[in-house]
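Lab meeting prep.
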Amino acid sequence: MSENSETTKRAYHSTEHRQTATIEAVVELCAEQDPATLTTARIANKVGLSQGALFKHFPNKSRLWESVAGWVSAQLTQQVFSAADRHQLADQALEAMFLAHVGFIARHPGIPRLMLGELQKPGNGPAKAIIRQTLARYRKKVTGLLEFGIQQGRIAPGIDTEAASVLYLGAIQGLVVQAMVSGDMHTLEQAAPRIFKLYSASFQEKPDDPAK
């Protein structure tokens, strides 16, 4: 490999590292303050860069937020979906997915604020579009598992799978809101198994009544 190629490779890895570090810094800072008030100056200071250096990696704040949304989408779906895919039984996959999602939020408490902040913005910017697409893909995954569970006989037939998928996400969102109200995000993972147990009770197959 030539010296120029090696230099180019090092520069690429350095740029990639700083971009990732900046994205992770934004996620961390969103746990401390309203994302709408987060300035590029504070982000740059968190990463140890000047604002000029920051804008070499992200030409504007919109592009940075788009990259953050992309990172959140990739990390969330990869970690949550892979947890589900390790199980052959749909009800167990749904539980694993639920707990993995809650665990992801507990490790990155700034993400709910970031996602909600983008969804509340007017228009349909790139970051908002990514978040919407991620949530739609997530609901589709949950609905598919519910339908598969019906086929397996693990979930009661006749349930409204679309409504059940909305309730699934709503249970996670409710947990997050309660943790934010209490100011203790660590309670998320403690409460998650109990909440999922209540949720799953609504779709479990009921055994036949022996008296009939």
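Slide two material, second protein:
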Amino acid sequence: MTWKLKAITAELGENEISIDRDMLVGRHQDADILLQSAEISRRHAAFLIKDDALWVQDLKSSNGTFVNDIRVDDQKLLKDNDVVQFASIKFHVYASEAQPQQAEKVSEPVESPAVQQKETVIVQPAEAIATSEIEKTIDVVKEKTPAQQLSEQGMPELSARDAGVQLTRDGMPTSVGVPKPAPIPQGIDVHAQPEPAPVAIPETQSVADQQTEEKKNASVGLFTIITLVILAVIAWLFFK
């Protein structure tokens, strides 16, 4: 009998894993089923094969191992159609009869047990796969700009330049074309100077006018005071 796991969590896609031996589940690089998620412990759990029966064992993980939403304290015997869960990552467990190998595959060379290496199944969320693919695409698309290409090429040697170009002692070309200025529209005199705009100068009062105004104000004030005194004396005599 062959035991298999099929991912239920949407982030894992439709990954299918065959359990044909004791396998370690976790985030550690030595794990047989490598779950690259922060909520998975380094050595989270293990699948054990005992007399063609499949067991799951929790290895004191931080976020727990569950079978059909029940947390596993130590070991749990798995049955067909069970749901095993590591933290929030779920797999569907099902059993299938072992299929006999075809005759064509028998002729393929088989490595000796000493040479065979442990196969690691890496299961990671689709977001991580998408991110890695995007980074690879960006590296391929990146091209050097013309400025970077010129910077890497550097200045050409004097021997590589055009032999018909005459240079000065400083190495500058002598026949450099100077662009002509733009034509001046008709009816515009470039030598004409603009007429200055008139500036309004505020009128200021002279010192003599100020003194005359002050004397006039003092005389009016004195005349008013004298009038008030005379009226007061008349009123006093009238009512005495």
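Talking points for slide two:
The first strand starts at residue 2 and ends at 7.
DSSP finds four helices and twelve strands in the chain.
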